[in-house]
Amino acid sequence: MDYKMELTPEQAAILNGEKGEVMAKVMKTLVMYGEAFGATKMIPVTSEKGHLVTSFGLKVMSPVYDLMDQLIEAGITSTQKFSVDPKPVDPKVPSNFAKNLVFNKFMYTKQASYDEQLRKLGLVSNDAYTCTCYMDEVGNTPKKGDILSWAESSAVVYANSVLGARCNRNSGIIELFGSIVGCVPYFGLVTDEGRKATWIVEVKTTKKPEAQILGSAIGMKVMEDVPYVKGLTDWIGTELDDTTKAYLKDFGAATASNGAVGLYHIAGLTPEAVEQGESLIAENAQVYVIDDAELERVYKSYPVMWKKADKAPQLCFIGCPHLSLQQLKEWTDNVCEGLKKSGKKKVTIPTVFTAAPAVCDEFNKTEYAAKLAATGVTLSYICPLMYMNNPLAKKGRVITNSNKLRTYTTSRYYTSDEILDIITKGAK
Amino acid sequence: MKTFKGRPVVPGTAEAIALVSHGGFNTLASFQNALQFDKEEDKTAKCGDQNNPDLYKQPMGGSALCLPQTIGSTTGGMVLYCAKVMGKCPACMLFSEHIDSLAAAGAILGAVWTDTPMPTIDCLGEEFLNTVKTGDKIKVYEDGTVEIL
């Protein structure tokens, strides 16, 4: 193929087929991908581990599994081990005969064979299924400046923004290809220039903004651009502690799913903003002012997709992206307190908290596990998005505090406080 | 007839009816229902993105999909690749802005790993998206020229 970018002799040899026809196609895909963005070269992936977005063995994704079979049959494995997004089913999560039938007989019939493909290609372990692979308990936490070949929009935006790693918003398959050849095209968010902010967001609210709505508003406004957010540290502080990181995780997921943000800077908080300050802002950056009214406007704009909007909810999901250990503890305390106030012993609707398997394991070692179990809340490693990704879900009335889940499913968004009221008091 | 010149990310020719999204095109939200639950022989691929008023419930299969960029989940490129293999993708994708990384991945995976690439043109400009209307006849050339007939 004709290409303009500079390749090392090793990279060129792969492209020319010296490691086989399939490997050449892997490299050709990455070179074409880079050339579409004016990449001048390929740079080495420096993180210890990769992360893949595709965790589900959906029958309909057969083209992907066929492609992976081609890789495996050619003897290809990833040069770095990888984690992967959460599994789509968990027997602990409330279901029914019809849903189980749809899941097991029609939708996820490829799950076992796909899990096996992942193992053959380089999956870290059998419990490495989570969208929050960067949690300490999971152990796939890149260092500042690491070059990644990851996908999963919420993980990419977190790694770029909060950890200061460098990764483009790669698609599924592309991220695997980068982990296989050990290099990625040099463009976009892996370059200094691509990390400049072209939007200034001024937060001028009178109270701490709900992370999921603030992220949604910014995502819908800036789309794939890089925002530099001012004024947020007035509400969330200047320390990247567990509370702040959890806030930024949820905020970032909303920017990435309601828009296409792959990197944000928070003035006075995120690593590059602390180091470089406003020199990160590009010339002629646009300005977006967010006040209480703007957040309210955005919240009110979300369509309610339930067939009977005035009916009570039937299921609640909290944890898209997966909850941190601290969030699990806080939600446990909040639910216990809410139930105590309302004189109830159990949550009013089936409620599922979701977290990484390793985070669930740690949580289950604490005193909080028994407290949470007593409230009737289910703790699961499931991907709520994939759970709801079926025709039967449209008939159910699911509520969530996740703007990502709202975007991709018929679930109805409420703020965390509203959700707490609903599940502990039966409000709404 | 109006003519626009863009950059061929995946060169090719196509003639199709325009389907126009003025907002970002969320690939996963748009395709997930059609790919999963429509019959294999049903190639219409009606858009399932409730947040896209331009496209919601509109058939995308075989269309000349005109859009600024794609947004949303990083499964996007993979979803587009599956739509391509299953014959449920647009006949071509025409971007007013520079193509985004997810759409580029989908288009390039289709070009490298299938025998029938989907022509993909970007950088057609804001005026293109302001001019083209859903239902217009579109002709796409190898060099990135797009005619609204």
Description:
- The complex is a heterodimer of chains A (428) and B (149).
- Chain A has 428 residues and is α/β, with parallel strands linked by helices.
- Chain A is built from 18 helices and 13 strands.
- Chain A has helices at residues 9-15, 21-35, 62-73, 97-107, 111-121, 153-161, 174-181, 211-222, 233-236, 242-258, 271-276, 292-301, 325-342, 357-364, 368-375, 384-387, 403-408, 416-425; strands at 42-44, 50-52, 82-84, 183-185, 197-203, 227-230, 265-266, 281-290, 315-323, 351-355, 378-380, 398-400, 412-413.
- Chain A has a five-stranded parallel sheet. A four-stranded parallel sheet of chain A has the order 7-6-5-8. In chain A, strands 1-4 form a two-stranded antiparallel ribbon.
- In chain A, strand 9 (315-323), helix 13 and strand 10 (351-355) form a beta-alpha-beta unit.
- Chain B has 149 residues and is α/β, with parallel strands linked by helices.
- Chain B has one domain: Glucose Oxidase, domain 1 (3-Layer(bba) Sandwich).
- In chain B, strand 9 (137-140) and strand 10 form a beta hairpin.
- The model of chain B has no long low-confidence stretch (mean pLDDT 95).
- Classes of the chains: A alpha/beta (428), B alpha/beta (149).
List the defining traits of the structure above.
heterodimer, A: 428 residues, Aconitase, domain 3, 41% helix, 13% strand, B: 149 residues, alpha/beta, Glucose Oxidase, domain 1, 8-stranded mixed beta sheet, two-stranded parallel sheet, 4 helices, globular
